[in-house]
C-alpha cells in the first residue's frame, strides 16, 4: 500500500505534535466573561500507549468547564489530544495531566476531566478529576 | 430542478428573517402567572454557519424556563431560530445570545439554554448557560 | 365503513364526557393515610385540539402525587383525560388545569403534572407544574 | 377554562373533517415517475374511537409506498388521518381502510400500511396490510 | 453580535456553493476497481428549504454505493450537500437528485440514497431511491 | 510527565510493528476443519492516520469469516491492527487491505471485513468488502 | 388486608376460567376476508405454573396470524390466556397448545406463536411454533 | 393437555402459599451488622388479581433496604411474593403491605418498595413507599 | 469469611461436574414430535478458562434448535454448561463441542450454537456453528 | 476435547489463586496524592459459587474510589476477583469482603463497591457498600 501520491494533497496541518510537551493549547476570549456557564467537550477518539505493554490504549475523554477570561480553541485541543498518541502513560496520569494543562492554558473557574478507558483483562477503568476540588 | 411552479403554493409565511436582529420573539400572557412552573422547548433542528470555515454547523438546542408574566410563542421562536441559519457565529455565542434574547423578550423568572453541536474533528461541544446564575 | 352493527355491542361506558367540566374525577380512601408515599400515573395517550389551528395535539402526561385522605380512581381519570379530546386548549393550560382539577378532587399532600407534547414545526414543548411550589 | 378569545387567532385551517368520507387525500405529480422508489410516512399520533366502549384508541401508523404517477400530499394526509378522530372503528378496519383509500387516491405501484395500537387489557394489537399481496 | 473580527480567521474554505448546480462532486480512483464492495456515507446534518413555506427542512441522508472506477471524495460531498441549504426543494426531489448527481459524478455499480426528514405536522417522511432498480 | 520508571515494568511485548508490512498474522489449526462455521472478531479500537491531514482516524472494525484449515490468532491480530496506527491510509484501502491480508494468512472459505470510521465534517464513512464476492 | 368491601365493586367480568379447557376463544368476521394481511397480538403478561416446582412461570407471548374468515376477539383472548394462570404446564406445551387452540378457533391462513419465558437458573427459554410449517 | 405424568417429577417445593398470610419471610443474620449498606431486590414477575374485575394484574416490584441485624432470604421472598398470585388487591395496598411485612420480618434500618404495574386502559400506575419517611 | 455454617443449608444439588465428560445432558419427550418448531435457550452466564493464560473467560451462549423426538432438559443443561467452569478450552472448541454434545444427546432436526466471548486485548470474538450446515 | 498441546503455550500467568486469602492486591503510588479524584473499575465478569446449591453465581461488580497514597493495580485486581471463582459465598458477603480487602490494601479516602448478581428464581439482587458510610 503506497499512499504517497495522495499525501501530496496533504497541507500544512500535516504535523502531529510528538508529545503533549510539544503541543500548544490555544485560547480565545470568552464571549460572556461575566456569566458563569458550562462548556462540555466530548472527545471519544483519544488514544495513548500502555506504559507496561507498549500497546495502544483508547479512551473516551469528556472535559467540562466554566470559562474564566478565555476558552480553549477546539482545533488546538484536537492537536493536543493527538499528541498523546505515541506517549506511554498510565490512565490516571492522562486524566490528571489533561486537567493540569487546561488549567494552565485558560484558568477556568471550574473544570472536570474524565477518561473512560477501553477494557483490559475484563476490567474497564474510568478516572475523573476536577478543579477546584468538591 | 425547477420547483418554481410549486412555490406558487407558498403563502405569507414565506419569509425567513435574515438574522436574529430582524426576527421578533412574540409572547403571550402566562396562563398561571402566580405559579412557578417549567416549560421546556426542545429544538433539534438548529443550524448556523461556522465563522471560521463558512460551513454549516448544526445543533440540538434545549430551552427550559419558568415564565413570569409572559410566555414565548413557539411559532415566532421557530422563525427566530431559523434566522441564525446564514449567520456566522461561534457555538458559545449562540447559546448566550439565545439566552439573552429570551430574557429580553419575556423576562422569565428562571431560564436555561443548552446547545449540543454536531462533532467536528472528533470533538463535540455542548454549551449551557442560565439565568439567574446558580 | 359502517360499524353500526358492531357498536350494538357497546355498553353503558359508551359516553365520552364532552369536556373536563362535564367529567368527574372519582376518588377512593387512601389505604395508608398516615404514610407519605408516591403514586405515579403514566398517561401516554392524551389528546386535545390546538386552539389556533383546530388540529389534534397529542401528549404524554405524567402525574405524580403523595395522597392525602383520598386517591384518584384510574378509570375516572381515563374518562376525565378523554374529555379534553375535542377541547381547544393551549399546552400550558392543559398541564395547569389537570393539576388544579386533581388538587380539587383529592387534596393531595404533593403533586406534579407534566405534559410532553408532540413536536410541531420542529419544536417539542413540555410543561411541568407542581403543588406546593418547590 | 375559556380559550374562546385565543381561538380568534385561528385561521382557515380550523376545520377538522368529521369523518374519512368527508376528507380529501390530495396528490401531486411524482417527480420521477419512471423510477421505482419508496416513500415512508411515519404517523405516530393517530387516534380513533373504540366501537365497543366509545373510548379513544391511539395508534402509530406507518405508510410505505412506491408512487405511480402521483404522490399523496402530506398536509391533506394529516387532515385525512385526523378525520378518524371521532369515528368508532375496529383496529383491523382502520388499517385496511387507510390502505384502500390511499390506493384509490394515488394508484401506487406498491403500498404497505401498518397500525400499532396502544395496549388494552394487557394485549397490544398491530395490523399490517399491503397491495399488491405478497 | 459582531463576529467580524473572528471571521478574519476564516480561510479559503469560506465559500458555500449557492446551489447544487454550482457545486462539484470530486472523485478519486477506486483502490480496488475489480472488487465489488460497499461504501456507506452517513450524513445526519442535511438541510434545505421547504418550497411551500420557505422554512428550513432538515434530514438525515444515507448514501450506500458499490464503486465502479471512481469514489466520491467526502469533502466535496460535504460542500455539495451544503449547497442545498438555501434551495427550496421537495423531499422526494432531494433524494432523487442526490442519486442522479452521484450517478453522473462517479458511475457507481450500485447506489442507494435515503433521506429521513424531520417531522412536520405529526408526520415524518422518508424517501429512498436506488440504481439500478431492484 | 516522566513515566520512565514505570516503563521498566514493560516486558517483551513492548514492540509495536511499525507498519502492516512488518506485522505477522499468526494462525492455528481450525478445530473443526470439516464444518462450515462463522467466527466474528469485533475490534472497536482501530486507529490510523488520515493521508491528507496527517491527523488520527479511528474506526470500529468487524471481521467475520468461515475458517478453512486455519484460524487467525487474536493476539497477533491485535498487533497487526495496531501496526496501522502511524500509517497514512484511506478508509477504503484499510478495509480492503485487511481483507486481503487475512485471505493470504489463513485462506478462509468466506470472509467479510467492515470498518465504521468516526465522522469527519459531519459525514461518517463505512466500508465493507467480502470474499468471495456475493 | 381485607379487600372484601372493594370487590363489591366487581361486576360480571369477575370470573377467571379455571383452565384453558373452560375458556372460550370468541371470534368475529374478518373485515377483509379476501385480503391476506397480518395481525400481531403482543401479550407480555402471560403466567402459568411450573409443573416440576409448582412455582409461577411468566412469559411474553406474541401471536401473529393472517386471518381467514374470522379474527380472534382480544377480550376473549385475554380470558383464555389468563386461564393458564394456575395450570402446571411445560413451556413448550404452552406455545404449542396456544397455537393449536387458535387454529381450532379461527382457522387462520397462517399463524406463528412465540413465548419468551423468564430466566430460571441462568437460562432463558423461548419457543416458537407456526402453521403451516415453513 | 395432561401434564400429570410430568408433575411426578415435582418435589417438596410444590406448594404455593394461598395468600401472604400463609407465607413466611425467612431471614438470616446480616454479615456486616455494623455497616450501613444497601441491598436491592429486583422482582419483575409479580402478579396479583384486580379486586374489581378479578383479572390478573402484573407488576415489576423493586425492594431496596439497609439491613439491620437480619436480611431477608430470597427464596422465601419468592414464595411470599407468589402468594399474592390469587389475591384480589389494589396496587397501592400491595406496595404498602410488602413494605409493612418486610419491616416486620427483618427490622431494616431503611427500606423502599416500589411497584410498577402494567398499563390498564392506557394508564400505567407506579406506587412507591418507604420507611422511615423522608 | 467462613460460610461453613451456611453451607449446612446446602442440599443434594451441591455437586458441580468436574468437566463436560462427567456431565449428563438429560432429555424428555418432545410434546409435538410431528411439528417443526424452534426452541431457543439463552445462557448469558457461561464461563471457562483460557487455555493459554489459565484465567477465566466468560461468554453469552445461545442455543437454538428444532427438536426431533426429544428435548434437552434445562436443569441438566445448566449443570452441563457449569462443567466447563474449570476447563481450559479455546472459544471455537467450546462452541463446536456444545453443538456436538447436544446433537449426540437429543438428535435435533436442526441446531445452531453461538458463543459471544468477553473482549480480550480490545478484540471480542463470537463463534457460531450449526447442524446441518446451511 | 484435548487442549493439552495448546496449553503448552501457557506461561507463568497460568495460576489462579485458590481463594481471596491466597490472592494479593498489589498497589502503586497515586500520581496525584494531593488531589481528590475518582477512579472507577467496572468488572462485568465476576463469578463465585452459591453456598447453598454449589452452582455458579455471576455478577457485575463496580468499584469506585478516591485514592489516598496508593492505587490498586488492575492486573492484580483481576487475579484477586478470579480467586472467588470456586469459593462458596453469599452475595452480600462478597461485596462487603471486596470493600474490606480494598480498604486494607490501599487505604482509599473514599470507596464504593456494588455487585449486581444475575437473577435466580425471578429475583435479582444487588448489594452496595461504601466507606466511609454516608
Ligand atoms: Ca470553542
Ligand atoms: Ca396564577
Ligand atoms: Ca407556547
Ligand atoms: Ca388507584
Ligand atoms: Ca421518472
Ligand atoms: Ca410529499
Ligand atoms: Ca480491483
Ligand atoms: Ca472517500
Ligand atoms: Ca482465535
Ligand atoms: Ca375481503
Ligand atoms: Ca381484534
Ligand atoms: Ca439474601
Ligand atoms: Ca407431534
Ligand atoms: Ca425444556
Ligand atoms: Ca498531588
Ligand atoms: Ca490502575
UniProtKB/TrEMBL annotation, chains A, B, C, D, E, F, G, H, I, J:
<dbReference type="InterPro" id="IPR016856">
    <property type="entry name" value="QueF_type1"/>
</dbReference>
<dbReference type="InterPro" id="IPR043133">
    <property type="entry name" value="GTP-CH-I_C/QueF"/>
</dbReference>
<keyword id="KW-0671">Queuosine biosynthesis</keyword>
<dbReference type="InterPro" id="IPR029500">
    <property type="entry name" value="QueF"/>
</dbReference>
<dbReference type="InterPro" id="IPR050084">
    <property type="entry name" value="NADPH_dep_7-cyano-7-deazaG_red"/>
</dbReference>
<keyword id="KW-0963">Cytoplasm</keyword>
<comment type="function">
    <text>Catalyzes the NADPH-dependent reduction of 7-cyano-7-deazaguanine (preQ0) to 7-aminomethyl-7-deazaguanine (preQ1).</text>
</comment>
<dbReference type="Pfam" id="PF14489">
    <property type="entry name" value="QueF"/>
</dbReference>
<protein>
    <recommendedName>
        <fullName>NADPH-dependent 7-cyano-7-deazaguanine reductase</fullName>
        <ecNumber>1.7.1.13</ecNumber>
    </recommendedName>
</protein>
<dbReference type="GO" id="GO:0033739">
    <property type="term" value="F:preQ1 synthase activity"/>
</dbReference>
<keyword id="KW-0560">Oxidoreductase</keyword>
<feature type="active site" description="Thioimide intermediate">
    <location>
        <position position="50"/>
    </location>
</feature>
<feature type="active site" description="Proton donor">
    <location>
        <position position="57"/>
    </location>
</feature>
<keyword id="KW-0521">NADP</keyword>
<feature type="binding site">
    <location>
        <begin position="72"/>
        <end position="74"/>
    </location>
    <ligand>
        <name>substrate</name>
    </ligand>
</feature>
<comment type="similarity">
    <text>Belongs to the GTP cyclohydrolase I family. QueF type 1 subfamily.</text>
</comment>
<comment type="pathway">
    <text>tRNA modification; tRNA-queuosine biosynthesis.</text>
</comment>
Amino acid at each position: 500500500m503506497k499512499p504517497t501520491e495522495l499525501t501530496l494533497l496533504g497541507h500544512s496541518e500535516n504535523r502531529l505534535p510528538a508529545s503533549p510537551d510539544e503541543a500548544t493549547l490555544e485560547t480565545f476570549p470568552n464571549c460572556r466573561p461575566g456569566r458563569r456557564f458550562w462548556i462540555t467537550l466530548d472527545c471519544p477518539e483519544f488514544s495513548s500507549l500502555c506504559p507496561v505493554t507498549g500497546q495502544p490504549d483508547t479512551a473516551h475523554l469528556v472535559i467540562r468547564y466554566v470559562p474564566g477570561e478565555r476558552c480553549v480553541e477546539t482545533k488546538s485541543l484536537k492537536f493536543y489530544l493527538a499528541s498523546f498518541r505515541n506517549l506511554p502513560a498510565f490512565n490516571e496520569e492522562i486524566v490528571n495531566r489533561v486537567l493540569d494543562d487546561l488549567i494552565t492554558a485558560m484558568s477556568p473557574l471550574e473544570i472536570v476531566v474524565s477518561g473512560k478507558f477501553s477494557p483490559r483483562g475484563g476490567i474497564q477503568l474510568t478516572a475523573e478529576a476536577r478543579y477546584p476540588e468538591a
